[in-house]
Amino acid sequence: MTAFAQTTATITGVFDTSLANQKSVFGDASTRSFNSLLNSQQGTSQINFALSEDLGGGLKAIANLEQDFNASSKSDVANLGAASNVVAGNKSTLGGQTFVGVEGGFGTLKLGAQNTPSLAIAAGRTPFGTKIGSGFSDGTSAHLAIQGLGHVRESNSIEYSTPVVSGLQLRANFTGATSAYTADNRNDAAVAAANAKRDVGVSYVNGPVSAMIVNYKQNEKYNQVHGFVSYALGDATVTYGFSNDSRLAATAAATTYSAATGQIALVVGTLASTNIAGTYKMGATTLMANYAKLDDKGTTNYDGKITAVGAKYDLSKRTSAYARYIKQTVSNTSVSIHAKEQTTSLFGLMHTF
Fold first, then answer.
1. Is residue 169 assigned to a domain?
2. E strand or H helix at 296, and its extent?
3. Is 38 within a domain?
4. What is the pLDDT of residue 183?
5. For the chain, where are the alpha helices, taking DSSP H only?
6. Domain containing residue 216: CATH number
7. pLDDT for the residue 75
């Protein structure tokens, strides 16, 4: 009789909703102020299914399905692209990372749409992760990306990560150029090789020091080197982050701006960003701060700064309350939907299971 191993399934999740007051002065000098419930401002509201099976010989099959949702709305679709979503950064999508893979003594191999090494950089640069106050934007929020252009995950990608050796680990993520066809039986031309992407990074964790550096490249389009280093001293942690971006080709005219996605058009040029961030733990309370600036050396010259302070109080192991104050400024913009100065105050609750 042959015995088959059983798959182990783990279900986890997050609910995160906050009440925010936001005041904006736009590029055309118009103003806006509102109070609103926002989604995913500390964590990402989601349900996550993680699967694993012991294959024997030190091998394990793994799979993951992450379902993001908007915890403050009955209709996620209604929020996508709405003006309140674009201005407030209340972004929520129905997709998260999804992959299947194997892991063992050789490392881990994943196929699908997994979180990239670049996302690990964004999450590590500030105590706010990729959320409001961090300066992160993946191009679908109206907040200018003070960290430089952010990358979350790519569809149809393959990633290999080595085992951790003396605190060092290599992660390499590759996305091949895709082909576009008007019908499955037509021999249409493939999309240019510029769609091919790579995202390769090295991380180091040893005692109080954590560091990571990543190179993201899209062929003939974009090249980015970004990273961070953190040092923990008792209950305090200080982090320095940086990003140097080279935009090799424009994605749209410099004057265009998409209200549907909030994306600022990229033009040929370079971006340089730096930030300094810190945390301090006092029992159940964690104090957080981040200051970042962006030097846009392209013709758009959208220089930016962000200052953020916050506090998180753990009500239990699974539930926390948090508060934040963020001020962001953008220079040299006259776009009517793009805020040149924006302040946000919010209070939220997050529960994990």
1. yes
2. strand 285-296
3. no
4. 55
5. 76-79, 83-88, 117-125
6. 2.40.160.10
7. 58
- Single-letter amino acid, residue 223: N
Strand 31-39, strand 8-26: pairing: antiparallel
Q: Please check whether residue 198 is in contact with residue 178, taking contact to mean a CB–CB distance below 8 angstroms.
A: no
**Other C-beta atoms within 10 Å of 66: how many?**
21
66's tokens: 């992450």
Q: CA–CA separation, 158 vs 333, rounded Å?
A: 38
Burial class (CB in 10 A: 0-12, 13-18, 19+), 189: exposed
pLDDT at position 330: 85
The confidence score (pLDDT) of residue 36 equals 87
Asked if residue 102 belongs to a domain, the reply is no
3-class secondary-structure state, position 123:
helix
Q: Is residue 248 packed enough to be buried (19+ CB in 10 Å), middle (13-18) or exposed (0-12)? A: middle
Q: Determine the residue type at 340.
A: K
Residue with tokens 């249409």: 188
Q: Which domain holds residue 124?
A: 108-178+191-352
10-residue stretch averages of pLDDT, the chain, 353 residues long: 72 95 87 87 93 95 91 59 39 73 97 95 95 81 72 91 97 80 55 74 97 91 92 97 82 44 59 95 98 87 92 98 95 76 95 97
Sign of CA dihedral 70, 74, 79, 80: positive
For residue 202, give both structure tokens.
């090295």
Total tally of structural domains belonging to the chain: 1
Instruction: Please state the φ and ψ torsions of residue 310, each to the nearest 5 degrees.
Output: -160, 170
DSSP letter at 332 equals S
Angstrom distance (rounded) from CA 24 to CA 268:
28
Q: Give the pTM.
A: 0.86
Structure tokens at 49: 């299914």
Dihedral sign for Cα atoms in the order 130, 135, 136, 141: positive
Taking the C-alpha atoms of residue 74 and residue 37, their distance in angstroms, rounded to an integer, is 12
